[in-house]
Every structure is written in structure tokens, then in C-alpha cells.
Specification:
By secondary structure, the chain is mostly helical. It is 65% helix and 8% strand. It is built from four helices and four strands, in the order αββαββαα. The strands form two sheets. It has a two-stranded antiparallel sheet with strand order 1-2. Helix 3 runs antiparallel to helix 4. The two termini are 26 Å apart. The mean pLDDT is 78.
Length: 129
């Protein structure tokens, strides 16, 4: 769900920021904004699922351990999603290229953090086998 949300956010950004006119009978900017909003909802829902305990190891054995993502990291990821999708920025996008770089930095950190969580979960699952 997280990766699908990221794809939607990135795919919605292109028409929302770069296209003018109609896209399939609808305003391209509005279509992009709707796709970004759907992606943001999927992304936040997927990030919040990281908080659940994941049981690692064979069921019914003492080898089982639990892996959870910290609340602070989840909050930072959700704030990054909101910052990326929100039209309100610390540096407005009008000031090119710096205005775009702050959004790109937030997206890059979010991708890194999600990849890190995926790697940690995979590693803990392999080590408990």
C-alpha cells in the first residue's frame, strides 16, 4: 500500500504542476491534485500500518520476536507526506529551483526511511528463521 501511494503521489504531481488545459475532459491540475490526494491517503494508511507488531519466527516457539517502527519515525513520515502534498511550503515553489528542492528533499528522505524500514523488517524475518 505504501509503494502504491508513492506512485500515485508522484504521478499526480506531474499533471498538477506542469500541465495546463484538459485531461480527458477534466482540468489537468484538478486531476493531478485528486491523484495526489488519493496517493497521500494510501501512503499515510500504509505508514500507520508500520506501527503494528509484526511477529517474526515460527508460531508457538520462544524464538518469536516482534518488530515495530517507532512512533517518532512514523510521525515524521506522515509529516513528510503532508509537507510534500500540501501547497503550503517553507520555501514557495515560485522560487525556482530552491522551492522545488525542499519538496524533493522531503520525498527523498521519505523514500529512504521507507526503504530502511522494509530492509529492517526483512532482515529480522530472515534472522528468526
Amino acid at each position: 500500500m505504501v509503494w502504491l501511494g508513492l506512485v500515485f503521489v508522484i504521478a499526480g504531481t506531474v499533471p498538477a504542476l506542469t500541465m495546463d488545459g484538459d485531461l480527458g475532459g477534466a482540468d489537468a491540475t484538478m486531476v493531478g491534485a485528486v491523484v495526489m490526494a488519493v496517493g497521500a491517503v494510501l501512503l499515510v494508511a500504509g505508514i500507520l500500518r508500520l506501527r503494528k507488531r509484526r511477529r517474526v519466527g515460527p508460531p508457538g516457539t520462544a524464538v518469536q520476536s516482534y518488530y515495530r517502527t517507532s512512533t517518532g519515525k512514523i510521525a515524521a513520515m506522515v509529516i513528510a507526506v503532508i509537507y510534500i502534498v500540501s501547497p503550503i511550503d517553507l520555501i514557495p515553489d515560485v522560487f525556482l529551483p530552491i522551492g522545488i528542492v525542499d519538496d524533493a528533499t522531503a520525498l527523498t528522505w521519505l523514500l529512504f526511511a521507507l526503504g530502511q524500514e522494509y530492509t529492517r523488517r526483512s532482515r529480522s524475518a530472515r534472522e528468526s528463521r
